[in-house]
């Protein structure tokens, strides 16, 4: 039997030499809202990545002589209660959101969620039962409450552990950079973000494993790892992309909410949640509207762009 017989259908290029990924991209390019969303996301995250170069000030540089100052030539977006430049803190907050979101997507969705979903759907039996029952336990817990409890209870311990790591290795600046907060927040979010992804992938794999090309690959002696990697994974790749695009906004929003509650990314690291908390309150907003408007507008644009991009990508994959 030829190798083409046992290959997953998604791995075979469509007629005309044009790959399915290329066709999806062409359909996506024709959607103006999708392209505008990509530009917004790219601008915000590029500003965060290069914040140390682009930001006019350091995110923790204080000036108590100019607290809560409105927009000016030296501070285009104004200053906060400690006289820190709002534009600089916005850029560094975008970096924080990017770091946490990327870490959660890579660990919680792509590795844990997809890995367990592929394994559960293909192997079945007691492996499937154990993975799904563990997922049921996590999904039955109140997600936001558990995230707050985990971050509030483990925050000091993680910080002390990182300080001990600094003393052991001689590497300084980990605590000052906010690394303990990043580590705890993305670990807690990853703990609860994999369940939905695993269930969706498992449901698709349960259908695919009965197909002829899977049976043929197994008959030719393909190992379970090879079947999963070369035959099942290519067939759920579009589903994985859709799932990631759908969860990006939710993960970014969760990090911001946790920090707003005071149990997310901790000072001195900059975060949109901390900026929103500082500017919240009717009296504060009436006196100093820029404290809430600056982070509020950026966060709204970012989450709205993620939602628009996810919808457009879903339509592009479905050929619309």
Task: Describe the overall structure.
This protein has 14 helices and no strands. The chain is an all-alpha fold and 320 residues long. It has a single domain (25-58, 77-317), classed as Orthogonal Bundle (MetI-like fold). Helix 11 packs parallel to helix 12 (272-279). The model is unreliable at 1-16 (pLDDT under 50).
Gyration radius from CA atoms, angstroms: 23 Å
Top-tier CATH class? Mainly Alpha
Shape assignment: globular
Percent of residues in beta strands?
under 5%
Whole-number mean pLDDT:
85
CATH architecture name: Orthogonal Bundle
The number of domains is 1
Q: Say how many strands there are.
A: 0
Distance between the termini: 36 Å
CATH topology: MetI-like fold
Layout of secondary structure:
Layout: H1 3-6, H2 20-29, H3 32-49, H4 51-54, H5 86-123, H6 125-140, H7 143-169, H8 179-208, H9 212-219, H10 224-232, H11 237-260, H12 272-279, H13 282-287, H14 290-317
Which tags fit this structure?
MetI-like fold, 320 residues, 14 helices, mainly alpha, 0% strand
In short:
With 320 residues, this protein is mainly alpha-helical. Helix content is 72%, strand content 0%. It has one domain: MetI-like (MetI-like fold, Orthogonal Bundle).
